[in-house]
Design brief:
Length: 209
């Protein structure tokens, strides 16, 4: 699939396997989500714009590339996406952070919007949308639509685990965006949970049920 990158790095695979383990507690789960986001971010941000900045070395003055960090917006989908923000900010501390609030109706599995605040001017930024789970793809696709409605153009979407159904839906709805997936799992079950997956990402990050 064009514009879709599935992570192959053994460190990412190892950490995702630890996340899946039901015996992994809240504290370790949070740390792992942040670490995976950072490792995936390293790949997803390989085309981040740089600007030449004057630097004085002990030898001479030179112009060298530095990350144009204010041009990046990280946008977590609430709640679970919040767990990935720290990992990206470790890489680009000057990035701005937007928030999109969506929850899945437990019966219909349809996403419902409850919040949207994006850093301006959004049309001039690289926007990295983060959410650990891409299940039916409804939340991810709606989040990207909301960002486009606000003028966002250069959008990337990063998830730790995707179901084939969700990846297809997001890609079909937004073929122009780059999608980064930590692991492409087998399928959705009758409750639209990813199999084998890791359960409910938000509950595991925040210790709720
Ligand atoms: C989870 C997850 C995604 C969404 C994925 O959030 O973090 O946002 O479900 O499902 P979808 O691809 O079928 O839309 P949830 O709605 O459980 O909210 P939470 O993060 O607040 O727990
Ligand atoms: N949301 C989650 O947190 N987990 C799933 O498996 C599907 C949606």
């Amino acid at each position: 699939m064009q514009n879709v990158t599935i992570m192959e790095h053994p460190l990412i695979k190892h950490k995702i396997s630890m996340l899946r383990d039901k015996n992994t507690g809240t504290n370790e789960f949070r740390t792992l989500v942040e670490e995976i986001a950072m490792l995936m971010g390293f790949e997803a941000l390989r085309d981040l714009p740089t600007e030449d900045v004057e630097i004085e070395t002990p030898i001479e003055t030179t112009k060298q590339p530095m990350i144009a960090g204010k041009k990046l917006a990280v946008v977590p989908i609430l709640r679970a996406g919040l767990g990935m923000v720290g990992g990206i900010l470790n890489l680009v501390p000057t990035a701005k952070v937007g928030h999109i609030g969506l929850y899945r109706d437990p019966e219909t599995h349809e996403p419902h919007e409850y919040y949207c605040k994006l850093p301006e001017p959004i049309d001039q930024r690289t926007i990295l949308v983060v959410d650990p789970m891409l299940a039916t793809g409804g939340s991810g696709a709606d989040a990207v639509t909301m960002i486009k409605e606000h003028g966002g153009k250069n959008i990337k979407f990063m998830c730790i685990i995707a179901a084939p159904e969700g990846l297809e839906k997001l890609h079909e709805a937004h073929p122009d965006i780059q999608i980064y997936v930590g692991s492409l799992d087998r399928e959705l079950n009758e409750n639209a949970y990813i199999c084998p997956g890791l359960g409910d990402a938000g509950d595991r990050i925040f210790g709720t049920k």
